[in-house]
Structures are given as structure tokens and as C-alpha cells.
Amino acid sequence: MSLSQQSNASEKGGRIALPCVTESPLTPKGTCLESVKIAIDAGYRHIDGAFVYYNEHEVGQAIREKIAEGRIKREDIFYCGKLWNTCHPPELVRPTLEKTLKILQLDYVDLYIIELPMAFKPGEAIYPKDENGKFIYHETDLCATWEAMEACKDAGLAKSIGVSNFNRRQLEMILNKPGLKYKPVSNQVECHPYFTQPKLLEFCRQHDIVIVGYSPLGTSRDETWVNVSSPPLLKDPVLNAIGKKYNKTAAQVALRFSIQRGVVVIPKSFNPQRIRENFQIFDFSLTEKEMKEIEALNKNEES
């Protein structure tokens, strides 16, 4: 069953999610908790989280509080957790997921994904580095890691399993693995009008793998890893002109574009108004001409 099929029985349930971003000194305690509760009240049911976001305790609390209020049932929520880079060895996969479940105080996650195809040196350090400040990588066998993920599904700890940031070659490695029990139901990658990933999207469609697009409104503009010479996505004149026609923001147009391409979107925000606005994309549709105009914005680069 696909990611979108496992969500609520409406278009809203499975196609737009709230990602729970990494805690930092700039993120006051309780911010994630309140954001998740606001999102649930607004109608969000798919929550994208990860152990290395350091806020799964707040996410779990928000879910439990809303269940206690009678607002939702556990089965209404579609929670995605992630296996971090230091936990690729097969013997670490289940204990890592069990740790996540303990933090969340949930019995299972709806989706568990390998966060990145590369591995870091296992150990206590989340970002292990050498004396020169360079990451310490670890040889990984993605097929062996995947078999451990399959075992987690068999044990009922994860309803579905998938991957993130995998390219076609890495996906084929899993899909062609001898004795494959479960193929990935999803592949979470950066995807937005400036980085539309058409070839990867088509490959995943052919194999019934749902693309989950992170940074659907553009990235954080961090010059250490993205090309900041491109203008910010939400200032794009095409998106803003189309938005004016429908009385929508450029962000809402960008999200609607992805939805109509069959991409699940996970826009990030702590702002209550924007959390609600990001959900208000199901009362209009883009024309074929408008879709093509937005597709033409693709720069084939992270920006």
C-alpha cells in the first residue's frame, strides 16, 4: 500500500505533512509541541519526524494530548521516523527504532525510512568527525540495512518502510536485492519548482514508490550547501502572478504544483498562520498551461 493510500481517506490526509524540524538554541522549548497541535487542529495528519531532530518527545506529547482531547485517534496519524547515518549496521536498526518509539511513547511508526544512503561511524556522536573536523564515514551495505528494516516491519514496529535521498542506482540496488520482501513505499527527496526531479519522479512512479518532497517551498538558503545565486523560490514572478489570479500566496501555488504532480509535500513552519495557509491548497487547481509554466522554472539544482 502506498504512502498516500495509507493516510486518511481524503486528498488532504496523505499529501501534505508537517515536518518537525531540528531543535536549536533559536527554537524555544515547547515550540514544536504547539506547532504540532496547531497543525493537527488545522487538519494535518501526516507528521514527518526524525530522531536527530531532537524533538520527538514534543511530537509524541502533542499527539497524545490530541488523542486525550478526543480530537484524533492514533490510527488517524501517519508518523514518519528516520534511521540516522550512524545506525546503518543491521544490529543497530531495531534498537534505534525502539528508542524512537520510547521517546514518542508510541507502539509503532507508520513509516520508517533510511534517512541517507551514506553512513557515519557508529557510536554516540551524531556527527562523528576526525581531528581535522571532517566527517568520519562508515562502509555500509544498504541491502543488509534494508533487511533489518524489513524485520522491523515484520515485528509490527513500522507499518511501512522507505528511504530518503536515494538516487535511481541506490533504489535499484534495493529493488533488485535477492530475497526482497518489501520494496520501499516512498523516497523522500528535495523537490520544488526549481528542482522538480522529473527523471527520478518517473522512475519512482514506474515502481509504485511515492515521492515525498522536502523543502517544497525552497531551501533554507544556507550557502554552505545550496546555490544562493538563484533567487528565492517564493519571490518568483511566475508563482506570484499565478497566486494573484487565485488569491493565493506563492507558497500555496508551489505546494499545489507538487500535489498535482503526485508529490507528497512536507512544508516546514512554526508560524501558526503559515501552518494553516500551507494546508489551504485544496480549494483550487492549476490549469495544464500553468503547470507547464511552473515546470519550466526547473533549474535542476538545489536552490
Automatic annotation (TrEMBL):
InterPro entries, sorted: AKR, AKR1D1, Aldo/ket_reductase_CS, NAD(P)_OxRdtase_dom_sf, NADP_OxRdtase_dom
Swiss-Prot/TrEMBL GO biological process terms: bile acid biosynthetic process
Active-site annotation: Y53 (proton donor)
Domain of life from the UniProt record: Eukaryota
Single Gene Ontology MF annotation: Delta4-3-oxosteroid 5beta-reductase activity
Lowers pKa of active site Tyr, annotated site positions: K82
Pfam families, per database record: Aldo_ket_red
Binding site for substrate: H138
Domain annotation NADP-dependent oxidoreductase: ranges: 33-298
Family, as annotated: Belongs to the aldo/keto reductase family.
Name by which UniProt lists this protein: Aldo-keto reductase family 1 member D1
Organism: Athene cunicularia
UniProt lineage: Eukaryota, Metazoa, Chordata, Craniata, Vertebrata
